Amino acid sequence: MRVVVFISGRGSNLQALLEHQKNYTVCHVISNRARANGLSIAKSYAVPSTVIPWRDTAQAEAKALALLKVLNPDLIVLAGFMRVLSASFVANFPFKIINIHPSLLPLYPGLNTHQRALNDHQTKHGATVHYVDQHLDRGHSISQSHINITAQDTAETLAARLLSKEHTLLTTTVNKIACGEIYWQDNQLFYNNQLITQPIVW
Ligand code: GAR
């Protein structure tokens, strides 16, 4: 399976994807920021990359779409990509775009997820991999990882502790999609040929 990864910055999830390529190959990286650290990571793995500035969404999406038509990936992974894709763009790739989000969706779509979990005195936090649809962080959830929140936690400690869980969650999920263990059929999610009504927990 050929995977294109969209990034905006640090690229630690991209690095995890590159390190754990088993059933898939990262064939291209797209970044909306020329100075994204993830671009150096792609280069160190000899994976081609393209920078598409996202100042004008319609223009950026037209460029991305043209590139994706050539690359023809089986899956698009948003790994720390901090731009919202339009409904018309997403409609080109139904159930072919997934995103990793640092919260237990449907809780805390959008930004500042760690601080919002703390503000609400949550005892559990986590990350979600979900299909991308036209609604921000609202597409069908595939898998989740959980962590406990302690009294000492800050947004920074939560983010740091969650990040290594994110890496395992994302690489496991992509490998299982790539080998056909996870699939979407007849408007439903399947894992090992079983209908899944709750996110898979890793
Ligand atoms: C990750 O924590 C990812 O879950 C989050 O950005 C970070 C990117 O880190 N994504 C979002 O908030 C998307 N809404 P990385 O660049 O090191 O992978």
From TrEMBL:
Its EC number is 2.1.2.2. GO terms for biological process: 'de novo' IMP biosynthetic process. It comes from Marinicella pacifica. Keywords: Purine biosynthesis, Transferase. The record marks D137 as: Raises pKa of active site His. N(1)-(5-phospho-beta-D-ribosyl)glycinamide binds at G11, S12, N13. Belongs to the GART family. It comes from the Bacteria. (6R)-10-formyltetrahydrofolate binds at R55, N99. GO terms for cellular component: cytoplasm. Pfam families: Formyl_trans_N. It is an enzyme of class 2 (transferase). It catalyses: N(1)-(5-phospho-beta-D-ribosyl)glycinamide + (6R)-10-formyltetrahydrofolate = N(2)-formyl-N(1)-(5-phospho-beta-D-ribosyl)glycinamide + (6S)-5,6,7,8-tetrahydrofolate + H(+). Catalyzes the transfer of a formyl group from 10-formyltetrahydrofolate to 5-phospho-ribosyl-glycinamide (GAR), producing 5-phospho-ribosyl-N-formylglycinamide (FGAR) and tetrahydrofolate. GO terms for molecular function: phosphoribosylglycinamide formyltransferase activity. This is Phosphoribosylglycinamide formyltransferase. Pathway: Purine metabolism; IMP biosynthesis via de novo pathway; N(2)-formyl-N(1)-(5-phospho-D-ribosyl)glycinamide from N(1)-(5-phospho-D-ribosyl)glycinamide (10-formyl THF route): step 1/1. Residues 1-173 form the Formyl transferase N-terminal domain. The active site is at H101 (proton donor). InterPro entries: Formyl_transf_N (IPR002376), Formyl_transf_N_sf (IPR036477), GART (IPR004607).
